[in-house]
Each structure stands twice: as structure tokens, then as C-alpha cells.
Write a structure and sequence with these properties.
The structure is a homotetramer. The first copy, chain A, is mainly α. In chain A, 68% of the residues lie in helices and 0% in strands. Chains A, B, C, D: Its main location: membrane.
Chain lengths: 272, 272, 272, 272
């Protein structure tokens, strides 16, 4: 391997996962992210916030500085800094540090909804964990294969919910909690998904009959996305097994986690 | 192509989807329908209604006139106007414009339940979107194939719900909210579909035991429609793949969205 | 066909479904049962009961006399009357008429829980509808094939619910609504089946954490019965298609509702 | 069979299931465990506890002594006593008797949370029933095969719930019941699993819109674990049937509960 510049080596460590150092960096990063999330979650509890506000303040700034350094180093060593800065993770990385600086520069802004929203956005950094999840590929591919059918399904649900919500708005009216069509659509979603909070509930007999119909509908169309995912997943898993061929005897049909050929025992190529 | 009369060309544009103009008309129609729905939904919110009642009134009449023109043109250019007028979409198209004229001719009727119901019925026009959803065919065919089993399933649910509702009516009685057998059947549906509003809840020990039984029943029979749909869908998808044969080498087993033969690379006939 | 005695002919009509008369009798019976159910359900509504009590009383006795005659004729023409009387349907048929006579012989007993329970038991006669449902066989066979797995599943749920209910009883205690272990098990069932009435709800943090765990558990083990039923149903449907062989060319693999051979077009034997 | 020492024979009876005596012992043990559970559950009901406290006290000590004897004998006859004592069932067996002795030695401790928790832990002994459930193997194997995918699924749910909970905490705030991020995550779990207690419910429009999104998300990702389990179970059942080969004609593809070859009728080897 040719000699690498510091910047290239930094790139390998921070963005890559092939080297030992790169893996250690990833693990350290994940732990730091999880810790900063934990602090954020715990500091949202009033009683703790009042008691340990000083500690939370220091931890907050500690994490902010760490993530700032990480962000700057990423910008520095990335071959195309702008591409990184404009990517999903680049924006999330920026958002993770921004709120602290904003509230430092403009005192009082930490109480604004938008700043507080930005602060919890940091939680999306957890998505970086995703690359550690090996089986996620097959699940994702099934979802992608099924996306046409899922879209049809959600369009159907959207139409049903609008129709049913509108009907109940007219039948029940504002006196029974169905104050507007959007509120009634909210009720229809709560009912068709079988969540059933019970905060808005039909009172008239006709409304109850329609609600019962909505529930049974929700109950049975629940079967449709399951059927879609299952059918795609079954096929995907089968295709998967047929894709891996033994390099020695070219037999296929191995389990996805098989390491050796089931016919001749030769080592199989790394799968997935 | 032979010269077409104006009426025939109108028919092509309004009912057909083959020509460019027909496609543009469809898209414009869908957007208009969605806008009119949006106005209907927003105008149902009291605070907006009070503030912008004039704008809503004008928009309402604008959409009514547009849809009236569309309805008349459809009647005019259709080869069999009565068939259109009596079809599902013909009735929906009529219902979409009727309420405005009724409330214009008979002032005050806009507050009648039936007129307001007719107004929200307009939302069914959204179903015209359906033809844009490509994957809906395979889903619909699965549902049709499974309709015998789904009927059995719903009959079973209907019987269970009647029996369980009747039992709880006798056990709990009107004092605990189970005021009549229909009300108890409503409770049974709320419970067996796992919606669980909590507006009617058993109070006695025997009632609670039966409720627990109902829940576990609902929990497990939920599996039946899912199983039915999944099994039909899997088969339908498999049949689908086997139906498409390469016109060159007659290989089958292509993915539903494949455009080229997986064996010889020849273009496949358009599928679905 | 040899000459049949009146009794044998009656048997054919009442118990059989092969003759035209037998089919008409079945349909008339089903309609009568549905009507008597409807009267029972409507008469449970207080306001109707008060207004039309006389009509309900007469209808009640009309149905009772009809069903009494049916029961006696069934006993008379059955080749083994005791076997019928002791069968499931025999007992249900008796129960359908008993309460009216009891409340006639012992006035006032119609208010007893047991007599009123017996009255609604009549609803089980609706199960006679079952034989009209053609697809019920395949569903039932799938359930029977899967019964071992379903038993395992329900035992697991029973153990989980007992353990979780006991834990929450100790953690939450009677002050938060978890008054006893049976009540807590009821809560656990309400939660694990995702019904979620909200009448008993954990208040402590530890209780809430355990409740969240219970929900996620319920959410994921819901997948198990579905998986079981789907897998059995898929197999059953496949076996089904392979069972029917064309009497002409002996090809198999026909759809369950196919009437003609897909290879040679010969009429297939009646299936299911 | 060679002569066995008393200890070896005891081991056969208590730990084994091959001999008649071993099977009788198992059945007697299961019945005793179920009885002791029943006493525990019933004694948690206040009114019974007050009335029959003496009987419950005696029964409690009776079971404690029985289980103590069982524990000691197990320790005595086990070839490796320490391995048993440290195994899952060894610890559960110890925990089943400990609380009674603790509350005897240190009066008053029976009211401590930890002692009462230990008492209900005894319920885990019910898991010994598991070995009587024949079909549990295939279910367990499917779950194990799918554990990678299930882990991915639960990680996704954990991330979603944290993100959605945090967003609603900021949007709704403590005044609407979303007192802290952990409380909001609890709400998100209640909603995404479609349990829907209704104890915490969004009040603002933005909150309701996000809640509706959460429900639809929960509704559709519910399909994923089902798809996973179903796909694994189908495959497992197929593999199962292919594993059993007739010793006579080596035909495969038998049903899992088949006792004779479907081709030549020879007895099949015991399966599962």
C-alpha cells in the first residue's frame, strides 16, 4: 500500500470501516452519540433538570465541542467537503451542534420551539448505527420492491380515512367532539389503525355503526401490508439463497448465513 | 387515422387516456378535485369558516360551475349518455354538483343532514385517482380471489360479535354501560378489533374474564385474514411472473417490473 | 328410488340438503332464526321494549312455538332421537325454546341471570349457517393442522401474561388500580393484545417501563399466530390444487374454483 | 441394564423423562406448581386474603416445604450439584422457596418490594411446562433463524420511538401531559404498537398530525415482523418435511405429523 497523507489517513479512519482504527473510531462515535442522547433525554425530566442543571450544562457543552471538532475534521479530510456538508448526515452533524451556539450567541433563544426542535433532531445521528445492522439490507430491499404496492395501500387508506372522517363529521357534528373534518380524519386514523385512544368517540347510533364498520375495515385491511411484505420477503429470501453459488461445485440454495457449501464443504464467498 | 367529429374528439380527451390531451385533462381534473376537497376540508374548521366565509362561498360556486360543465360535456360526448349517467362515476359526478344547486333553490337546506352528506360524498370523486395506481390490479385480484374466504371470515366475526355482545349485555347490564344488545355488539367490535376506546368497559369479574377471552380471540383471528391475503398474494405474484414469456426465447419467471428478458435480453411485452 | 315412509321423507327434508324440499326448508329455517335473533336484539333496546312490549311478547311466543314444533319433528323423524338430543345442535335447539316455557311456568324467572343467559344462547343456532359457507373447510383444516402450534402460542401468552401481571401488581399496587393479581392479569391481556382500554394504566416509572416492554412484546408476538396460519394456509392451498386431477388427462395444479381442466378442457370433478 | 445406586435412580426420576416414574414425577410437579401459583394469585385478592389468611398461610408453608425438599433432593442426586444450582432452573427453584424463609427469619420483610417480587418470580417455574409442548421446537427455531432480522426491526422501532417521542415533547410540552422525553417515548410506544391507552393524548394540531403519522407508521411496520416470522416459518416447515426420509423407499416430503410413508406405507422414524 502506498504512503498516505495525513488527510487521507484521517479520511480512512473517520469515513471508512475497513481499518482497525476506523472501526474503533466508529464504535467510540456511536458510544458518544448514545451518551449525548441519554443526557438529552434525562435532562428533559424536570426534577433532574432542576437539581443537576450545572452538570447537564457542562455535559452539553462537552458534547457540543466534541461534535464540532468531529464536524470540522470531517469537512477537512473529505475529498469533496461540499458534498459531505450537503448530504443527509452532513446536515444532521451540523444540526447537532448548531443549537448550542445559537443559544450562546442569542441568549434566550433556547426556549424557542425551533431551537428546541433542532436540539432533539440530534437524535437522528443515531441512524449512523444502521450500518452495523447486517440484516437490514434484505428488509430494505423487500420494502423497496414492495414500494409500489405500499403506495397503493396508503393511497387507499388516505381516501378511506377522508371519506369516513367527512361522513362522521356530518353525522356526529361538533357537539360530540367531531369539531372539523381534519379532527374527524384524525379520529378515523385513530380508529382504522386500531389505536383507539378514546378521546373522540361517536355518540349517535349511526355514528357508532359507521365506527364499527371503520374498525372492521381497519382490522381486515391491516392484512394487506402484511401480505405484501411477507410475499416480497419470502421471494427475496429465496432469491438470496439462489444467488450464492459455491465457487467449487457451483451448487446454489444455501442458507443466507451459511459459510460453507452444503454439497462439497468449500468456503462460500462472503454473503450480503 | 380517420377524421373524428368534435364529439368523438371530446370523448377521447375526457374519457380516454391514450392521447396526450386526454392525459393532461385527467391530471387537471385530479388537481381540481383535490383542490375542491381541500377547500371542503378547510372550510369545515369553524374559525376559518367565520373569517373567510366569502372566499369559501365563491370557491364553492367556482368548483360547482366547473364540475357542472364537466358533467354536461360528459353527457354530451358519451356515446351512451344514459349508461354514463347511471354508472357509479356518473352518479358521483352528479352528486358533486347537486347540493350547491339545492341550497341555492331552497335556501336553508344547506343545514339539512342529507344535503351536507351529499356535499361530502363529492369526496368519492377521489376514487378516479385509482387508475393512476399501477400496482392496484394485483392487489385487487388477490382480494377478489380471496373473497370467498374473506366472506367466511367476516361471517364468523359477525356471529362471534353477536354472541359475545349478547353475553356481556346479560352479564354486565345497563348499569355498567351495556345498555342494549346493539350497544354491547358495538363494544364487542371495539374489543375484538383491538381498537379499545375504553368508553364502555366491563366492570364485573365475569365480564372482565369474557372480555379477556374476546381480546385473545380477536388477537388470534386477526391472523386469519392476513394469512388469506398473504397466501393469495404470493400465488398471484408467482402466477404473474410465470405469465410473462419472452417473445424471443420464451423464458418465463421474470420479475413483474422487468423490461428485458433475464435470459436473452430481448425486450419484454408491457406487463400489467 | 324405493318408496319412503313419511318419517324418512321428513328426515330427508329436515336433516338433509340433497333434495329441493330439504334446501327450501334450510333456507326457511335460517331466515326464521335470523328474524328471531333480530327481534331479540331489538327488544333489548329499552325505548323499543317499553313501546312495543306487546308485539315483542307475541313474536317471542310465535318463534318459541315454531322452534318447539321443529324440535319435536326432528326428534320424531331422526333415526336415533337420543343421539340428536344429546348432540351440540340438539342441545342448542332445546335451549332455544326452554327459557320461554320456564318463564311461563315460573313467572318472574325471566329476570334471573341464568334464564336470560339461556335466552341469548339461542344465538348459537346461527352456527347452522356454517354449512352454507363453502370456503370454511379450507380455513378450518388450516386451523386444525396448526392447532399444536396455536396451543404452544397460547400457553406462552398465558405464562407471559401471568408473569407480567404479577410483576405489575407488586410494582404498582392497589392504589394505582392494580387491585389484585387477576386484575393485573386482565390489564396485561388488555395491553399485550394491543386493545388498550385505558381503564387501568401504570402510574410509576418502573410500571410504565414494564408496560412499554409488554406492548412491544405483544406487538411482535402478534406476528407468530399470523405466521403459523399463513404458512399452513399456503401449504393447504397448494395441496388442494395438487389433489384435483383431471379425469381425462390427469393433469393437476388447478385453481380451487376451476371447473374445467386447464390442459384439456374436460370437466373437473366437483372440488371441496 | 446394570444395577443403579439410589442416587442414580433418584436422578432418573427427578431429572429424566424416560422412565414411567420420571413421567409421573413431572406430572405431579407441574400440578403442584400450578396449585401453588393458583394460591398465590387468589391470595392477592384482598377480600379472600382477609377471610382465609390462615389457610393461605398454611398452604404457603406447605408448598414451601415441598419445594425445599425437591430442591435439596435435586442438589443431592445431581451429578454436578453446582452446575444445577447455577442454572436458570436452579436459581428459579431457589427463588421459589427463599421469600418464605426470609420473611420467617426477618419478620416484616414480607412487605418489602424485593421480597414480594421474589415471591411472584416463582411463577417462572411454570416454564418447566415447556418441555411438554412438542411443537415449540419449530417455533423456537424460526425465531432463532429470524433473530438477526428481529433485532434490526427492534432497533428501528427504538430509534423511531425516540425521535417521535422527542418531537412530541417539544411540540406538546409538559402542559399537555408530555412531561419529559421518557414520558413522551412511553406515549410513542403506546401509539406505535396501536395499544392507545388514551392517558396521554396530543392536544395541538401539529401534535395530532404527528400522532396520525406515528399510527400509520406503526400500522404498516407491524407488517414487518409478521413477514419475517412467516417467511422463516414457511421455510422451516418445508425443510422439516424434506428432512424426514422413508427408511424403506427414501421418499421425502411427509407431513410433520405423519407416522407412515406416503409412498410405501412403511413406518417413519420418530420426527421432531
Amino acid at each position: 500500500m502506498a504512503k498516505l497523507s495525513t488527510r487521507q489517513r484521517l479520511y480512512q479512519v473517520i469515513f471508512g470501516t475497513d481499518t482497525k482504527a476506523g472501526q474503533y473510531f466508529d464504535i467510540a462515535l456511536i458510544i458518544t452519540i448514545l451518551c449525548s442522547e441519554l443526557v438529552l433525554i434525562i435532562s428533559s425530566i424536570k426534577s433532574y433538570e432542576l437539581q443537576y442543571s450545572r452538570i447537564f450544562f457542562l455535559l452539553e457543552w462537552g458534547f457540543t465541542l466534541l461534535f464540532t471538532v468531529e464536524y470540522i475534521v470531517r469537512l477537512y479530510c473529505s475529498p469533496r467537503p461540499m458534498a459531505y456538508a450537503r448530504s443527509f448526515y452532513g446536515i444532521i452533524d451540523l444540526i447537532a451542534v448548531l443549537p448550542s451556539y445559537i443559544s450562546f450567541l442569542f441568549p434566550g433563544t433556547q426556549y424557542l420551539l425551533i431551537v428546541r426542535l433542532l436540539r432533539v433532531m440530534r437524535i437522528f445521528r443515531i441512524l449512523k448505527l444502521a450500518k452495523f445492522l447486517k440484516d437490514s439490507n434484505i428488509l430494505l430491499r423487500s420494502l423497496l420492491m414492495a414500494q409500489g404496492k405500499i403506495l397503493v395501500f396508503f393511497s387507499t387508506v388516505a381516501i378511506l380515512v377522508t371519506v369516513l372522517g367527512s361522513l362522521l363529521f356530518v353525522i356526529e357534528g361538533p357537539d360530540n367532539g367531531f369539531t372539523s373534518i381534519p379532527a374527524s380524519i384524525y379520529w378515523a386514523i385513530v380508529t382504522i389503525t386500531t389505536v383507539g385512544y378514546g378521546d373522540i368517540v361517536p355518540q349517535t347510533d349511526l355514528g357508532k355503526a359507521l365506527a364499527a364498520f371503520t374498525m372492521l375495515l381497519g382490522y381486515s385491511i391491516l392484512a394487506v401490508p402484511t401480505g405484501i411484505i411477507t410475499a416480497e420477503l419470502s421471494r427475496e429470501m429465496k432469491t438470496q439463497r439462489e444467488l450464492v453459488r459455491c465457487p467449487n461445485c457451483s451448487a446454489s440454495g444455501h442458507e443466507t448465513d451459511a459459510s460453507y457449501c452444503r454439497k462439497c464443504g468449500a468456503a462460500l464467498p462472503e454473503n450480503l
